[in-house]
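Let us work through a complete example step by step.
Step 1: write down the sequence.
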Amino acid sequence: MRDCVKFYIDGRWVEPVGTGKFEVIDPATEKVVGQVRMGAAEDVNRAVTAARRAFDSYSRTTREQRVELLQRVAAQFEARKADLQAAVTAEMGCPNWLAEQAQVPLPATHINVAIELLKTYAFDHLSGITMVSKKPIGVCALITPWNWPISLAITKIIPALAVGCTMVWKPSEFAPFSAQILAEIMEAAKLPPGVFNMIFGDGPTVGAALSSHPEVDAVSITGSTRAGVEVARNAAATVKRVHQELGGKSPNVILEDADLEKAVASGVRYMFLNSGQTCSVPSRMIVPRSRLAQVVAIAKATAETLQVGPPDSGAFVGPLVNASQWNRVQQLIQKGIDEGATVVVGGVGKPAGLAQGYYVKPTIFSDVTNDMTIAREEIFGPVLAIEPYDSVDEAVRIANDTPYGLAAYVHAGTIEKAREVGSRIRAGQVCLNGDLDLLDPHSPFGGCKMSGNGREWGAFGFEAFLEETAYVGYQPASAAS
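Step 2: predict the structure and record it as C-alpha cells.
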C-alpha cells in the first residue's frame, strides 16, 4: 500500500486541511494499492500564498541560477528513474517496457532540452527605441491528467521554473504515486520554499479553486475538453491566462501511393500504444476506397500480433486506467456496432483469459462514416476507425470534419505530396511519413478548435509562462536611427 496523505507546500510536507480520501486501484488487478488525501479550498489558499510570497525573489533569479537549479532537478530525476517506472506501472497499469522506454525517458528528454534552451534563450530584444522584455507571468496553476502523468507534468513544471515562475501543481488523483515522487525530486533538488507546491484533489474542488483564485496569474491544463471548458469559465472572472491542451480525434490520411504496409501497421501500433489513452493518437485511419480491403487485412494482421496483458508480461497493450473508463469504451464499441460499422477485430468484453483488470479487446472498425459516434467522439481506448475516401479532396474534408484539432498524420509516396496534403489539414501538429519514433521535443505541441490553445515543448513551452513588457524610450531615438 502506498499512502499519499501529505501535500508539499512552501518547502515542507504538510497535513492537508481536506479530510476526504480517494482509493487508488491497480488497473491490472482491480485491487486497492494506495490512498490519497483530497484537498480543500483552504489547501489551495495555503499553496497559492506560498507561491505568491516566493515569486518576488524567484522571478529575479539569474539565468545561471535557474540553469543550475534545473541541473539539480535533472540529476535527482535520473536518480529516481526506477522508482518512477514502478509508480506509473502501479497507478495506471502501464506495461513495464513502456514505462522504461517512454513514460520516464520522455520527460527526462524534456528536462535536458529545457536546460540547453535556457542557456541561450533571448528574454530581451531591442525594437527601434523600445526594449521588449519577456517576464515570468507570475503564480501558475498546473493541472495534469493520469495518462502520461510524468511527461505532462514535466512539460509544464520545467518551463515554468526555467523562466522564473512559481507554481501550484494539481496532479490527477488517479496517478498520485509518480506525483509524490516528482515532488520529492523537487525537494531533493533544493528549490527555494514556495517555488514549487503540490496538492492533491479533484477538479470540482481543488481544480476550481485554483483556476478561479485571484492570486493565480495563469492556468495550464492538460485534460479533457470538458475539463478545459470548466477551467476557462472559472478563470474568466479574474482575466487570467488559460493554456489548454485538450482532447483529440486525430486523422491519419494514407494516400494512394504510400507504403501501405508501413503506414497501416505503424498507425495501428501507435493507436494501441498506452492502451489508446493518448490524446494525439491517430484514431481515424482515412484510406483510399480502392485499397480498403488491403488496408483492413494489414490492420487486422498487425492487431493480432499485439498481445494484451499485465504490465510484467511483455504485452504491448495494458489495461485502461479505471472501471469508469472501461465502461465508457465498452459503450462506444457497442455504439459503433449499433450504428453499422464492421468489426474487423476485437469488440465488446474483455480479452480471453483476462477476467481481472480493466482490459479491453483492441478493436478495429471498418466501413466507418464520419457521422458515426466512433468517428466523432474521443474514445480514449484502443479503438481504431477506418474510413474510406474516393479522392484526396474528400480525404482532406473528412480529416478536417471534426471539432478537434490536436494532431494529424499524413503518409504519401513522396515527402512533397505529404507536405502538400498536410498543409491543408487544420491541426496543431501534423506528422509527415512518420513511424512510432517520430518525435521532436523542440517542436510546438498543442491544438486548435476544441483541442485547446497555446503550445508546449521546447522554446514554445517557455513562452506559455512569459509575458512581454515594452520599455519605450529605452534606446534614444538618435541611437536607434
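Step 3: interpret the result. The longest helix spans residues 41-58.
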